[in-house]
Design brief:
CATH class of chain A: Alpha Beta
Distance between the termini of chain B: 31 Å
Strand content of chain B: under 5%
Radius of gyration of chain B: 18 Å
Strand order of the largest sheet of chain A: 5-6-7-3-8-9
Number of helices of chain A: 9
Helix content of chain A: 25-40%
Number of strands of chain A: 9
Oligomer: heterodimer
Largest sheet of chain A: 6 strands, mixed
Structural class of chain B: mainly alpha
CATH superfamily of chain A: P-loop containing nucleotide triphosphate hydrolases
Structural class of chain A: alpha/beta
Order of helices and strands of chain B: HHHHHHHHHH
Number of domains of chain A: 1
Largest sheet of chain B: none
Chain lengths: 237, 246
């Protein structure tokens, strides 16, 4: 089971009108690993994970999540938790109400109270969404993504807009997910984040995979991950 | 069904936390009833033998459902789409019919609540007549509710942004409440406004409720218009509906 592939993307293509967002991306996420998708803004990262989450239908190529097609097989949604970039909830919705709604969608779900406590939101169960801090919102979205006890979690730009302390806290939460045996597909444009969290990653530029491997492999001969990443992205630009 | 009820329960709570929604949907009709109903409900020649309270209550019932159905439904869907709330729900195992159904059900429940308040208060304090046919009144109310919800769904589905949705739904909503007979009895409107109102589906709702309530008569044309609008509106909305803005 060690090398079982939970997310398989083969030669994925997706355009919006004349604009090509993803131009032949392939990647495999193995069970239990944190897999990073790193790249500058507009590189096609979000489109790639949106296809994996079943939000978009690919123009070409195949996407399989736990062996299923996420667009045509809604059963995938019971086994995959998704945290979306720029996600919000209605301003006046309380934390416990959000948990109740999303919990109701699963035949069996994790205890919402325990999940909130685990993610440091026990005090906030009666707080309206609008009154939560940025870090609390992110933790709520992670808790919502975990309600169905998923095998795979997709995290898109998890720490964008968070202050440094909240970022570090969030990183330890991602590591906690990995410890639980959850496979994580992590999208980020921050090199330090990818280097600290990911077992393996791909760097995407212009809708294509520019490099793939472990953080150490990608760093290679460069002094740091940062210079390796900049070399890759400048090459593409 | 459980997700539908869980969603609806939370959406009802959200509705009741919105002061403007509560004021305009539930409180305003009662206030207007106090203003217009205090001279009693004796039969008037001007209203074809009906009393003022009977006439205004029939209109206010339509006002309530138009406010929550057209405005409430359209703006909530547009707002949820714009903010990405629909998108977030879409990646969960919540099914589309549960998400959309909860909004229809919430606005329907608020219409029922507003209607019940209105009828109870008007009967207890303003001498509202008993309906000539309760089944017919309920049938017409149900058809009218389907019609306004379908219009709200259609506006919430067709228009690309929240601003555009607000503009276009207001352009439908204000004539619908002002010249259909919902807020002001049809008889008291100028001739051209009455003519104009014939193109508005809610005008048929007001007329059909008055006919069923006062005379126990089913207005067949109105029923066809209301149900036809409901079916066509829902069908077009389902085709046009998008889960995200862009």
């Amino acid at each position: 089971m060690e090398n079982e592939v939970v997310v398989s993307i083969r030669d994925l293509r997706k355009s919006y009108g004349a604009k090509v967002a993803v131009d032949g991306i392939s990647l495999d996420v193995r069970r239990g690993e944190v897999f990073g998708v790193l790249g500058p803004n507009g590189a096609g990262k979000t489109t790639t994970v949106e296809c994996a989450a079943g939000l978009r239908e690919p123009d070409g190529g195949t996407v399989r999540v736990l062996g299923l097609d996420p667009v045509t097989d809604p059963a995938v949604r019971h086994r995959v938790g998704v945290q979306l970039q720029h996600a919000v909830l209605p301003n006046r919705m309380k934390v416990r109400e959000a948990m109740r709604i999303f919990a109701s969608a699963y035949p069996r779900h994790t205890d919402p109270g325990a999940l909130l406590a685990e993610w440091g939101l026990a005090e906030q169960h009666g707080t309206a969404f609008a009154a939560l801090s940025g870090g609390q919102r992110q933790r709520l979205f992670i808790a919502l993504a975990l309600l169905g006890d998923p095998e795979v979690v997709v995290l898109d730009e998890l720490t964008t807009g968070l202050d440094p302390a909240a970022r570090r806290d969030t990183w330890s939460l991602v590591r906690a997910l990995r410890t639980r045996g959850v496979s994580v597909l992590l999208v980020t444009h921050a090199m330090d984040e990818a280097e600290r969290l990911c077992d393996r990653l791909v760097v995407i530029t212009g809708g294509r995979v520019a490099a793939a491997g472990t953080p150490a492999e990608l760093r290679g001969a460069h002094q740091s991950m940062e210079s390796a990443y900049l070399a890759l992205t400048e090459e593409a630009a | 069904m459980r997700p539908l009820f869980a969603l609806t329960r939370v959406e009802v709570a959200l509705f009741l936390r919105e002061p403007a929604a509560v004021l305009f949907t539930l409180a305003l009709p009662l206030l207007l009833l106090f203003l217009n109903g205090s001279n009693g409900n004796q039969p008037r020649e001007f209203f074809g033998g009906a009393g003022v309270v009977d006439v205004v209550v029939a209109g206010y019932l339509v006002y309530v459902m138009t406010t929550s159905g057209v405005l409430g439904m359209a703006e909530t869907l547009a707002d949820y789409r714009d903010k990405g709330i629909l998108r977030r729900m879409r990646v969960s195992p919540l099914r589309p019919w549960q998400i959309l159904g909860s909004h229809a059900l919430t606005n329907l429940l608020m219409s029922v609540l507003g209607a019940a308040l209105l009828v109870v208060v008007a009967s207890a304090f303003f001498g509202l007549s008993r309906p000539a046919s309760i089944p017919l009144v309920l049938l017409v109310l149900a058809a009218a509710a389907c019609c306004v919800l379908a219009l709200g769904f259609l506006l919430g589905a067709m228009l690309p942004t929240v601003r555009m949705t607000q503009a276009v739904s207001s352009a439908l909503y204000f004539p619908s409440i002002f010249i259909s007979g919902a807020l002001f009895p049809r008889e008291s409107l100028p001739e051209f406004a009455q003519r104009l109102s014939d193109v508005l589906p809610v005008t048929y709702a007001v007329n059909a409720i008055r006919a069923a309530w006062a005379h126990g008569v089913l207005d067949g044309t109105a029923l066809i218009v209301l149900l036809g609008t409901a079916v066509v509106g829902t069908a077009v909305a389902l085709r046009a509906f998008r889960w995200e803005s862009r």
